[in-house]
From TrEMBL:
Taxonomic source organism: Chanos chanos
Protein name: WD repeat-containing protein 49
Residue stretches of each WD repeat: 371-412, 508-535, 592-632
Region (Disordered): 847-894, 1008-1033
Repeat recorded as keyword: yes
InterPro entries: WD-EF-hand_domain, WD40/YVTN_repeat-like_dom_sf, WD40_repeat_CS, WD40_repeat_dom_sf, WD40_rpt
Biased composition (Polar residues): 868-885
Domain of life: Eukaryota
PROSITE patterns tied to this protein: WD_REPEATS_1 (PS00678), WD_REPEATS_2 (PS50082), WD_REPEATS_REGION (PS50294)
A UniProt-annotated Pfam family: WD40
Lineage per the UniProt record: Eukaryota, Metazoa, Chordata, Craniata, Vertebrata
Keywords carried by this UniProt record: Repeat, WD repeat
Length: 1100
């Protein structure tokens, strides 16, 4: 059995073959049926037949699998135990997945002042809602496209004095609650017309509410709780009993349906509303309540404040009328934010003391966990409920992702947020869509998580074009085809920061660092070169393509000049003394036109030797000081400089149409044939070998070139001679390489993802007769990638030599030169730590029984199959193009880097197509590139410098409310209104009078008919009974009036059946009142009838 480490458990080291052997232990040799084994027999047989572990380990495995403690174990029990352990391990692996964020982008917002709240509204048409301090409400679609905006209205204050402090969404009734500094809470209907019509308004609050939260029961939406905290340290909760019917009672039908219903806070506290009641506490004292949450699982209100005492309060609610049970948690300097994890029953708090604390709601003595790592105040925390993760954001714009189980920080995101000293920050995480939104004053930023299910580990989303190492900041810098630059720590592999859209939609083809390693040069296919600092600020924009989209293959940064090449036969030079403006134009290269084809690469050797290589394989040696061409290096031995006549001839040849080029004559034919034959000699990279200045004088090699067909050549620049050449990768169309700063190792990579390390320390030190074809010693070979290698870079970090490799498989890999892989930048499982690892040196022993380089190498394996050790960060300035460890102290130290010359991106076609296709198609396509003009890394996000926010003070209308609100400034509880003292008849007529239900025409006709009837009745009674009948007439009139009232009440009751009420509960209450009054009228009518009967009997 293969063992991978003694620290692992025995069951973790079992292979498939070991499991097959283990299963055979439980089979009867004669019948083949399953049998059970006791502990002694299992340990003995497993140790002898399976092996790979000690007797104690097998005994421990038996005890763990025998969960019933029966002393016997069969294969079914053992297999169940192993499967359970593997499933738990898989679950832990999935839970440990680090979020991979897409590039941050800024959303266009309609807000002018700081955003006070951002939330998601669920339903048939999901939307996002945001509200700012000035009352602007933004409505966003599910894809975060701004649909519309509204101005929240409050007739209690003037529009210019409007100040929103918080918002809560009531999804079960499609309303929102908004709090204002006028000590009011307004409820707006999201479905009303006009939109966002204010329905209810709570007035007369004791203090200004600053935070709100709403919860409703998922099985019984009628049960809901609105909690809010205020500036006076008071936490209030309004418990609704019939939220779907009505939040508050309506005063009566006399009130218009669209009018705002005013609810006095004192009436709510006194229990005047039958459909809701309130609970509150003042445990926080005078400190402002920063955040409130109602925990439905605990039926408790959770709140926090900035005070050291009672920083976190958990109020357990009970039945109506019962006092709250309080639990107080104390935190030094207070708490700014909180969140609750339902499954883990944990409370997370953001502290002013730079710590994130985890609390058990039933243990108030101390936190169960303290997460340390932030350097400033923590302003926001949010749980990722599904993955048991915690997000925290601090005042210095650092986002951290924590593993709740291990209390470790698994991700650190910084450098992508706007830079400002003071700002109001909100954090909202929508777990269903894996979106993180952060607001900085009025700016809103979006971070989306890539879906990682079943995906391999990658460093970028697109093909990686270049990789650099910054020894000053100890960071690795990589760029991709999506115009994104990413910075990594070499010590751990963590992503430090990311600059998206550096060149808009144009691809970044190459990068370079200046000699101080404080400025980064990036070149795009838009023909521009930009100069950045490491905070994302663009200082200069070099117009290398002269307002044309050109492909730049390399940037060579020297002490006084910047050389750019890749698309024409002359160098494009920018002199550093002209870098006084943002837009920099190129200067003239004094050396003139010497190359016959496009210049692709260059290298510099102090003090003044410059070499350039072109597409036709020609290498020219220049004096960088005078910018004069000295000599040529060609494989055919022709080292003379091209004459002016030959130059004109070649220009004429290129200008001819394709048909006329087929049959040139004379000198034109020779030049054209040379150009075609030079296609296989394309030079795509040049490197000087360090510490070989004296070797070059004696005839040894001091320059390495590489290009197509996997061919590597060694040159002597002093004598213009080819010293050696060999095929490093036989079956590769092109090869890319680098040389370490000491000149000891040559590293080559091919289009299959294979990398080879060669020992050139003693290679070509002495001149030889002819060209040497034997290869240097091959030290090691590795397969760090599954696709073509696009860039290689060696770096020295903590006195250890590492290799950085980039590939079209979107991975940046850190490896030792001995052949072992440290890891991939951006890997999720675990990060490395270079300080705890050794530094193996490359030797020939690492090659082992490897096949000769001429033979076909084995098929590449994906990076997942390679053991991931630890990975580097950017340190050590051992670049492959210049000798950094030479003894010349007063010479120019260049900072150079070549472009991506391999891969399946747009950078590779130059080396795969024929000469004719290159001339007639590729240059035309480059001329058709779209121009993109951007300024700064964050230019597309339109980030402006945010205004600093000073100390917060109460506004004048809060200090002197009597000057703004008149009689409303008194915050004391209002005196309860007196009960109505009108007669029963007037009380009945007020809400249910005839004129409230019947038309004016109907009432007029009824009055005329009733008047004529009364007159005829009175005349008849006077005539019949005389004076004695007058009294009886009055009694009959009273009787008829009562009968009429009853008739009206019956008509009203019948009419109520056909009326449409919006509030059924209000109708029920009003009907009960009508019944009571009708019974009273009936009793009085019965008394009148009895009196009349007695008088009649007396008369008789």
């Amino acid at each position: 059995m293969e063992t991978r480490g003694k620290s692992e458990l025995l069951e973790s080291r079992l292979s498939m073959a070991d499991l097959v052997k283990m299963q055979s232990l439980f089979l009867d040799d004669t019948s083949g049926k399953g049998v059970s084994l006791d502990k002694a027999e299992f340990v003995r047989r497993a140790w002898s037949e399976v092996g790979g572990g000690s007797l104690d380990e097998f005994a421990q495995l038996f005890d763990n699998a025998d969960v019933l403690r029966g002393g016997q174990l069969n294969w079914s029990q053992l297999a169940s135990f192993l499967l359970l352990g593997l499933s738990e391990k898989e679950e832990q692996t999935k839970a440990s997945t680090v979020p991979r964020w897409k590039p941050a982008r800024q959303l266009p917002t309609p807000h002018r002042q700081p955003i006070e709240h951002f939330t998601h509204l669920q339903g048939a048409n999901p939307q996002y809602l945001s509200i700012s301090r000035e009352g602007t409400l933004g409505v966003w679609a599910e894809d975060l496209v701004l649909l519309k905006k509204h101005q929240v209205a409050n007739d209690s204050v003037r529009p210019k004095d409007l100040w929103v402090t918080g918002m809560a969404v009531l999804p079960n009734v499609y309303k929102i609650a908004v709090s204002f500094t006028s000590k009011e809470i307004c409820f707006y209907d999201l479905l009303s017309k006009p939109e966002f019509n204010c329905q209810y308004k709570i007035q007369g609050l004791e203090h200004t509410p600053i935070c709100l939260d709403y919860w409703y029961h998922p099985q019984d939406p009628d049960q809901a709780v609105l909690t809010f905290g205020d500036m006076g340290g008071q936490v209030n909760a309004i418990c609704f009993c019939s939220a779907l019917i009505s939040l508050f009672e309506r005063p009566g039908l006399s009130v218009e349906e669209k009018s705002v219903i005013i609810i006095k806070w004192a009436e709510l506290v006194q229990g005047r509303q039958s459909c809701c009641y309130t609970v509150r506490h003042r445990e926080h004292g005078p400190n402002w309540v920063r955040r409130v949450r109602f925990l439905g699982a605990l039926e408790a209100v959770l709140s926090c404040s900035s005070g050291s005492q009672s920083s976190l309060v958990l109020a357990w609610t009970g039945k109506e009328g019962h006092p709250l049970r309080l639990s107080s948690f104390h935190m030094k300097k207070g708490i700014t934010d909180l969140d609750y994890h339902t499954q883990l029953s944990l409370i997370a708090t953001a502290g002013v003391n730079h710590q994130v604390c985890l609390w058990n709601p039933y243990v108030i003595s101390k936190p169960v966990g303290v997460l340390r790592g932030h350097m400033t105040n923590v302003v926001a925390v949010r749980f990722i409920q599904g993955k048991k993760r915690l997000l925290s954001f601090s005042k210095d714009k650092v986002l951290r992702v924590w593993d709740v189980a291990t209390h470790l920080c698994i991700q650190h995101v910084a450098g992508i947020f706007p830079k400002t000293h003071e700002c109001q920050t909100l954090l909202f995480f929508h777990e269903e869509c894996s979106r993180l939104l952060l607001s900085f004053n009025s700016a809103l930023f979006l971070l989306e998580v890539n879906q990682e299910a079943g995906r391999r580990v990658t460093s970028h989303e697109r093909t990686i074009t270049c990789v650099l190492y910054n020894a000053l900041f100890r960071q690795v810098i990589s760029s991709d085809a999506a115009s994104t630059v990413t910075f990594w720590l070499i010590d751990t592999g963590h992503k430090v920061k990311q600059f998206p859209c550096c060149h808009g939609d144009a691809e970044i083809s190459t990068m370079a660092l200046d000699t101080t390693q404080t400025r980064l040069f990036t070149a795009g296919t838009d023909g521009l070169v930009k100069v950045w600092d490491f905070n994302g600020h663009c200082y200069h924009r070099l117009n290398a393509g002269c307002n044309q989209a050109e492909h730049i293959s390399q940037i060579l940064v020297l002490k006084r000049t910047v050389l750019i090449m890749g698309w024409e036969r002359i160098l494009r030079v920018f002199r550093l003394n002209t870098f006084s403006q943002y837009h920099v134009q190129p200067s003239e290269w004094r050396g003139g036109l010497q190359h016959c084809d496009d210049i692709l690469c260059a290298a510099f050797c102090p003090p003044q030797t410059l070499v350039t290589g072109s597409h036709d394989g020609e290498i020219i040696v220049w004096n960088n000081s005078t910018e004069n061409a000295l000599r040529k290096l060609r494989p055919d031995g022709n080292h003379s400089l091209m004459s002016k006549f030959a130059d004109r001839t070649l220009l004429k040849t290129k200008a001819l149409p394709s048909a006329s080029r087929c049959s040139p004559s004379g000198s034109e034919c020779s030049l054209l044939s040379a150009a075609i034959s030079g296609e296989k000699d394309t030079v795509n990279r040049l490197c000087f070998i360090g510490n070989r200045k004296e070797v070059a004088l004696t005839g040894g090699a001091d320059l390495v070139s590489g290009g197509r067909s996997g061919l590597i050549r060694f040159w002597n620049t002093a004598h213009s001679s080819l010293v050696a050449e060999f095929v490093a990768h036989k079956h590769s169309e092109s090869v890319i390489f680098t040389v370490d700063g000491s000149g000891c190792y040559l590293v080559t990579g091919d289009m299959n993802g294979e990398v080879k390390i060669w020992d050139i320390q003693d290679y070509c030190l002495q001149p030889s007769e002819g060209v040497t074809n034997h290869m240097p010693n091959l030290l090691s070979s590795l397969q760090p990638h599954t696709d073509c290698v696009t860039d290689l870079e060696t770096c020295v970090h903590d006195d250890c030599l590492y290799l950085l490799s980039a590939s079209a498989d979107c991975c940046v890999t850190l490896s030792y030169l001995s052949g072992s892989i440290v890891g991939i930048f951006g890997q999720q499982k675990e990060h490395w730590c270079l300080g705890e690892m050794g530094c193996p040196q490359p030797t020939e022993e690492h090659v082992g029984n490897m096949e000769p380089p001429e033979e076909t190498m084995p098929c590449p394996q994906p990076p997942e199959t390679i053991t991931e050790h630890s990975s580097p960060t950017l340190n050590g300035s051992e670049t492959s193009q210049s000798a950094r460890e030479t003894n010349w102290v007063d010479e120019e130290q260049p900072s150079i880097h070549s472009a991506n010359v391999l891969g399946r991106s747009g950078l590779v076609w130059r080396y795969r197509e024929g000469r004719s296709l290159k001339e007639c198609h590729s240059k035309c396509s480059r001329r058709g590139y779209t121009r993109h003009t951007v300024i700064g890394v964050f230019s597309e996000m339109k980030i402006d410098e945010l205004e600093a926010v000073g100390d917060l003070h109460k506004p004048d209308f809060m200090i002197n409310p009597h000057l703004y609100f008149g009689k409303m400034w008194d915050s004391s509880s209002p005196t309860p209104l007196p009960l109505p003292t009108a007669s029963l008849e007037n009380t009945f007529r007020a809400p249910f009078g005839e004129r409230n239900f019947f038309t004016e025409k109907f009432l007029r006709q009824s009055e005329l008919a009733q008047g004529s009837h009364d007159q005829s009745t009175e005349a008849k009674m006077t005539k019949t009974h005389g004076g004695r009948g007058k009294r009886q007439t009055e009694q009959e009139l009273l009787l008829s009036g009562c009968v009429r009232k009853l008739a009206v009440s019956d008509v009203l009751m019948d009419s109520l059946e056909f009326l449409t009420f919006r509030n059924l509960r209000e109708l029920r209450m009003e009907t009960l009142q009508l019944d009571l009054e009708s019974k009273d009228v009936e009793s009085r009518l019965q008394q009148l009838r009895d009196n009349m009967s007695r008088e009649k009997e007396e008369r008789e």
